[in-house]
Design a protein that fits this description.
The protein is α+β, with helices and mostly antiparallel strands. The chain has helices spanning 24-35, 104-113, 126-132, 148-160, 163-166, 185-195, and strands at residues 10-15, 40-42, 47-49, 51-57, 60-64, 79-86, 91-96, 119-124, 138-139, 168-171, 177-182. It has six helices and eleven strands. The strands form two sheets. The chain has a nine-stranded mixed sheet with strand order 1-7-6-5-4-8-11-10-9, sandwiched between helices.
Length: 206
C-alpha cells in the first residue's frame, strides 16, 4: 500500500507563523508538478504524495508540509523549515505552520552528501518509475522510505553510483517514488522534465 505523506520519524514541531522567506520558486515548481500529476493526492486512500525542498543554510531547509498534496494552489502556510535532524535516532525538528514532510530525512541526506545541492524534488509516477528503475541510480527494494535505512541508502548511492552527476534517484522500495536534485530548483525541476519526456530514459553508467 502506498502510504506517502505519513510521518514515520519522531517529529518535534514548533508551530509558528507562515515563513517569511521568498517561496516563489518552491511554489512555482510544486504547482507545476501538481498540474503534471507528479505531485498530488490519492483520493481512494486519502493520502497525498510528492514534496519539494530548498536549502537555506547549514542543516536547515524549507520543505512542503506533510499531507499537502491535495492542495491545488500551495501557499507559504503549507511549508515549514527543518531546523535540525538526527539520522541515527530518526528525529526531525521543524518550525512553521505545518509539520515537515515524511521524506525530510531523505532530503536531508541528499543535502549532506553533496554540499552543492540546494534543492530536492520528490515526485510519484508509476509509468516513469517502472521505466527508470535500475536504469538510473536506484535504492534497494527492501529499504522503505522515511527511515534511517533509506537515509543510509542515499549515502550508499553517492559512493557507489553516478547519482552525483545524474541527479536522479528511483526508490525501488517506495512504489512510484522518484527524487531529483540540483544546485537550484530550476535544475532539479528540469531534470525531472528531461527524464519524463517519452523516449528519454538514459541507461545508468555504473
Amino acid at each position: 500500500m502506498i502510504d506517502e505523506g505519513y510521518i514515520k520519524f519522531q517529529c518535534y514541531w514548533q508551530k509558528a507563523a507562515a515563513l517569511q522567506e521568498d517561496l516563489s520558486e518552491l511554489i512555482h515548481w510544486r504547482n507545476k508538478f501538481l498540474q503534471m500529476g507528479l505531485i498530488g493526492y490519492y483520493p481512494d486512500i486519502n493520502v497525498g504524495f510528492g514534496n519539494i525542498s530548498q536549502k537555506v543554510g547549514g542543516k536547515q531547509f524549507i520543505i512542503s508540509g506533510t499531507q499537502t498534496g491535495h492542495i491545488e494552489h500551495i501557499q507559504a502556510e503549507h511549508f515549514t523549515t527543518v531546523t535540525d535532524y538526527n539520522i541515527s535516532t530518526n528525529e526531525v525538528w521543524c518550525k512553521g505552520p505545518v509539520k515537515a514532510s515524511s521524506e525530510s530525512m531523505t532530503h536531508a541526506m541528499i543535502y549532506e552528501n553533496d554540499p552543492m545541492v540546494e534543492a530536492v524534488i520528490h515526485i510519484h509516477s508509476e509509468a516513469f518509475w517502472k521505466q527508470l528503475i535500475n536504469q538510473v541510480p536506484t535504492t534497494r527494494r527492501e529499504v522503505p522510505y522515511g527511515t534511517p535505512e533509506m537515509a543510509n541508502e542515499i549515502t550508499r548511492l553517492f559512493s557507489e553510483s553516478e547519482v552525483k552527476t545524474q541527479k536522479i534517484i528511483v526508490m525501488a522500495g517506495h512504489e512510484e517514488g522518484i527524487l531529483s536534485f540540483g544546485a537550484c530548483l530550476k535544475e532539479a525541476g528540469e531534470i525531472i522534465e528531461r527524464f519524463v519526456r517519452p523516449g528519454s530514459f538514459p541507461v545508468n553508467q555504473n
